[in-house]
Amino acid sequence: MKKIVASILVLTTLQSFAQNPAPARPQIRPVALTGGTIHIGNGQVINNGTVVFDKGVITAVGDASTPIDRNNTDVYNIAGKHLYPGLISPASTVGLQEVASVKATLDYNEIGVLNSNVRALIAYNTDSEVIPTIRNNGVLLTQAMPSGGTISGSSSIMHTDGWNWEDAVLKADDGLWLNWPGYLSREFNMEDFSASLKKNDKRNEAIAVLKATFADAKAYAELTNADPVNLKLEAMRGLFTGSRNLYIRAGYGKDIIEAIKFAKEMGVKKPVIVGGEESYRVVDFLKENNVPVILSEVHRLPGRQDEDVDMPYKLPGVLQKAGILVSLSYPDEWWRTRNLPFLAGTAAGFGIPDREDALKLITSNSAQIMGVDHLVGTLEKGKQATLFVSKGDALDMRTNVVEMAFIQGRNVNLDDKHKRLYEKYQEKYGHKRPLAEKR
């Protein structure tokens, strides 16, 4: 009897711990969202618009006159609210990194220097507590990015909902990641927690190794049926056919130029600069070579003492005005990825006058860079129904209150740890105890 009671107490205790909501079930009936302001994601806005989707695919986008089979459709009136395509977070470690101080929860970095065969895809943790928190600000897609070494491995584009990585993946192995050996290297002093720059003495050696590796990979890619299969070189095959991007982490202007020249020389079809803190110094070169840029988070201080204090805020507008395809990311601060829409909001206040153009930085531009713009990034007929409804402007932290979210047509549960903690402490501190109880 004591054992039975103890078992019941254990089960009751376990059930008291809140868990992430279960992934949404597949869409079984058509859904229509009517009366809201539709932000297409390509600069177009439809007031009092209608979006209809069925079996995970958008079937109609238009104004209030768009026909709806109301007898067989779940209709939601979203008048006064805003409808957006799902926001996309590129260059992210969400799902690969949970608790920074617990090594067992970190799966974004592999041992070794040349890890082209590493796939971030299989390490993506759909049970991460962070994922629901970013979903609640409209981030419905994330690019799981590896790091470490010189060649880090392959990234994949993931939905922020799914039982496992097989369920969550939108596009597997979309590109390879390269940490460019720059002229300067950063050193961190653990004694006083200061950072300093010094000349990278190992740079020439690292570039020589890269040239040999890419030359081998290019020769290997010309083989129709390689036997035996070289996993490291096989993973690089798509770089020379254009089926995969080469994401190059580079910040200084000189490094950006050299990295792009290297990629072109090696026959890489689609280089993408990631980070790009000094990309404003090489705008003409980027434009001439048609190279897109995924910027690191813009809520930071300038990288140089002689830069304008608001240069990070202005940078997306500078690049976009020059005709460069640009996107925004939170590469090293996975827990802050929920704030991605507000980076675009900042850009809208510093050089991008049209908020719909700022929205592109985290929707259609990201989708185009990663090669999934035929599936997501805008609200158009034939694309996946990955979208969300906000009470107000999604780029404004004061009004972005996500009330509904759909991923491939699945109605996603918007519960998360932040909301549970809010309710917990609202209950604790939200009600004053009577004086008699205090005594």
From TrEMBL:
SUPFAM superfamilies: Composite domain of metallo-dependent hydrolases, Metallo-dependent hydrolases. It comes from the Bacteria. InterPro entries: Metal-dep_hydrolase_composite, Metal_Hydrolase, Metallo-dep_Hydrolase. This is Amidohydrolase. Keywords: Signal. Residues 1-18 form the signal peptide. Gene3D superfamilies: Metal-dependent hydrolases. The keyword Translocase does not apply.
